[in-house]
Amino acid sequence: MITVVVASYRYGHLASHCIESLLSQSRAPERILFVDDGAGDCAFLQALYPEVEFVLRDQNLGVVANFQDMLERVNSEYVMFVGADNWLRSDAIEILSQAQSDIVTYNIVVTGELKDHIPRRYPESTQPVHGDFYWRRAGQHHGSMLYKTSLGKKVGYARRPGAHANHPEEDWNLWNGMLAEGASVSHVDQGLLYYRRHRENFLKSY
């Protein structure tokens, strides 16, 4: 079973799209947790989506502490984090529910007004498709990879040494830590996540 944690910081104007993509899945996740890390722009969502569990913080914890706290609240076998500015393809959970490995990665469709940033940085793994960019992630981590909750809790989120001030690379640190623990990895060669690059995106390092 899969829990999806939706993380928001100044994404309140986009978050409904993300939540709707989870509620309309061909196979529903076991649980949806939504966290606003102190921006204060998501309270209106509670009345719209009573089936979602909300954590609305009064103060900003920062990416690492926020993610770690939310991970500790998960009790399903698998978990994935999704930025509230992004969304999942409607069959993503159904496909990922077939997981046999400790970690499952998959490809990404990069969209949004600032989508050109990604192919400039990763030209070898991106290609244009339908006006967006298809980003292949075989053998590579990303922030919305599916992973076993128990293994994630064992390793934990932390800032990667030397990471950019506005990008702690906590997902990279988690990925490396899980691999060091001998985690098995599989890859779904399909674009299951729509990753939106936009003017309010928290990650400013690219």
UniProtKB/TrEMBL annotation:
Residues 3-124 form the Glycosyltransferase 2-like domain. Coiled coil: none annotated. This is Glycosyltransferase involved in cell wall biosynthesis. It comes from Ottowia thiooxydans.
